[in-house]
Design a protein that fits this description.
- The chain is an alpha/beta fold and 527 residues long.
- It has two domains: 166 residues, N6 adenine-specific DNA methyltransferase, N-terminal domain (Ferritin); 296 residues, Vaccinia Virus protein VP39 (Rossmann fold).
- 42% of the residues lie in helices and 12% in strands.
- The chain is built from 18 helices and eleven strands.
- The strands form two sheets. The chain has a nine-stranded mixed sheet.
- Helix 1 packs antiparallel against helix 6, helix 1 crosses helix 8 and helix 2 runs antiparallel to helix 8.
Length: 527
């Protein structure tokens, strides 16, 4: 009797995920041919978006077909809108496109599909790309990409829960940045960092703003945040959310993807297109919560054209680095009791170049800095620049929490996280809970427990101590060294044991050296 086949060991989730993204990228890059990467980016991601909403539609369509006996109508758009799923007209359904993928007219068919979806879902008007019939796009390769996508689920319920679209986009953006020769510029924020920011400042009611929202990652990557603030899909839902979302993005193709991402998740947001510094589209907004991951160390932000800007209350940011322009833009847009959490390069905590140290000093002396978090390395996909989190509060005696004026909380999380593969690290849910709970206890939240300094991890430092450190905000300067566990072995006994161990190792090393010399002599390489 033959033995049953043993199942193959499952590949690690990270390896499988990376293999899937790499395979998809290789096919998409082959399709690019001679098209400019910046232009082509939206073509590919638009097609993935179409697959995403098609997966969700087809999954719901199958359920409705099974329920026809109970009165369900698979061709009634309201059946989908009631479930926060986009209605996909017949000409836009993936099965139709897949059947025509090898035809010379596939480019026009995809354009028609995009137009049909925009027509039947007004929230997507002027957002979807309709550039697939262009002569520069190889129709045979477009068909091949459709075939490849047909075998990959990105929009069914299971994939939505794992944010497959976000993972694909994150990887693609990294690869496109490499193709464009500017690694580390425009990229996704790792979902663990987004979750940490959200858990820290708890933006569950009020006006939420991201001045450099990219593809809306701050709004869509936290499952808890999205579930708490869904506002229908713009197709007639009357459900109201507790937050109002405002964002701005300077890159047009990324702005369109931001609109798509919010629309998919049923989030109603005011996402503007334009340069945040030079054309602030939410100039009068004063936000209750600001979440942001500005591009690090941007040198070409044309700061010299904004001398004397009203946002530079704490000092003119250097024209060669936009870090403190972002910080002051964020402060400018905070409501009287507003709170902000954002990512910056580590240099922002200690730099004194071109007046940055003076700006940081003025922010600290204005009692705006609430908490600083040093992050572990290797969290980001497309930049190796070490990063930190800043948390600012406009009014640190607002009655909601305890009076924190004259204090700053420092958290050193550099040793936290786990490696997901050889080059990438992520913060675990336990890490995020530990950091957030420490912050909540420190600022006096109800039921958060009592705060205590922990050597090597957390320190509540008075303003006077920060002044002694020259207004440098690097947590490692304040938290000290982690306490080492006492193993109970007396010092004298330990030293005798260690010295004896050293002598044994030295003797063994001498034997090995002698053996190597003898072997070399046998080979004719002796002295």
């Amino acid at each position: 009797m033959p033995h049953p086949k043993q199942p193959k060991p499952a590949a690690s989730k990270a390896a499988t995920d990376l293999d899937f993204r790499a395979k998809l990228w290789a096919a998409a890059d082959a399709l690019r041919n001679n098209m400019d990467a910046a232009e082509y980016k939206h073509v590919v991601l638009g097609l993935i978006f179409l697959k995403y909403i098609s997966d969700a539609f087809e999954e719901q369509h199958a359920k409705l077909v099974a329920e026809k006996a109970s009165g369900a109508d698979p061709e009634d758009p309201d059946e989908y809108r009631a479930q926060n799923i986009f209605w996909v007209p017949p000409e836009a359904r993936w099965t139709h496109l897949k059947a025509q993928a090898r035809q010379a007219t596939i480019g026009r068919l995809v354009d028609d599909a995009m137009a049909g979806i925009e027509r039947d879902n007004p929230v997507l008007k002027n957002v979807l790309p309709k550039e697939y019939a262009r002569p520069a796009l190889d129709k045979e390769r477009l068909g091949q990409l459709i075939d490849l996508l047909s075998n990959i689920k990105v929009g069914d319920e299971a994939s939505r829960a794992k944010d497959v679209l976000g993972r694909v986009y994150e990887y693609f953006l990294s690869q496109f940045a490499g193709a464009e020769g500017k690694k580390g510029g425009e990229f996704y924020t790792p979902r663990c960092v987004v979750k940490l920011l959200v858990e820290m400042i708890e933006p569950y009611r009020g006006r939420v703003y991201d001045p450099c929202c990219g593809s809306s990652g701050m709004f869509v990557q936290s499952v808890e945040f999205i579930r708490a603030h869904a506002n229908g899909n713009g197709n007639g839902s009357k459900k109201k959310a507790d937050v109002s979302i405002y964002g701005q993005e300077s890159n047009y193709t990324t702005w369109r993807l931001a609109k798509m991402n919010l629309a998919i998740r049923g989030i109603d947001g005011q996402i503007a297109h334009g340069d945040t510094f030079h054309s602030d589209r939410h100039a009068d907004l004063r936000a209750d919560f600001i979440l942001a991951n500005p591009p690090f160390n941007v040198s070409d932000w044309r700061g010299e054209l904004l001398q004397g800007d009203k946002r530079w209350k704490y000092g003119a940011p250097p024209a060669g680095n936009a870090n403190f322009a972002w910080v002051q833009h964020i402060v400018h847009h905070l409501a009287p009791a507003g709170v902000a959490g954002f990512v910056l390069a580590n240099g922002s905590m200690s730099s004194s170049q071109s007046g940055e140290g003076e700006i940081r000093k003025n922010l600290i002396e204005a009692d705006l800095v609430d908490c600083m978090v040093a992050l572990p390395g290797q969290l980001f996909f497309s930049t190796q620049i070490p990063a930190c989190l800043w948390f600012l509060a406009r009014d640190r005696k607002n009655g909601k929490f305890r009076d924190r004026r004259g204090e700053v909380l420092f958290l050193d999380a550099r040793k936290l996280g786990r490696m997901t593969d050889r080059t990438h690290r992520e913060l675990t849910d336990e890490d995020i809970a530990r950091i957030a709970k420490t912050y909540h206890a420190w600022r006096g939240e109800k039921d958060a427990g009592k705060y205590e300094d922990i050597a090597g991890f957390s320190k509540s430092a008075p303003l006077e101590e920060v002044r002694k450190h020259g207004h440098v905000l690097t947590p490692g300067r304040y938290v000290g060294a982690e306490k080492q566990a006492d193993d109970g072995e007396p010092f004298d006994a330990k030293m005798k044991r260690l010295v004896a161990q050293l002598r044994e190792q030295q003797a063994e090393g001498a034997k090995l050296d002698a053996a190597i010399v003898a072997n070399l002599k046998e080979l004719g390489f002796g002295e």
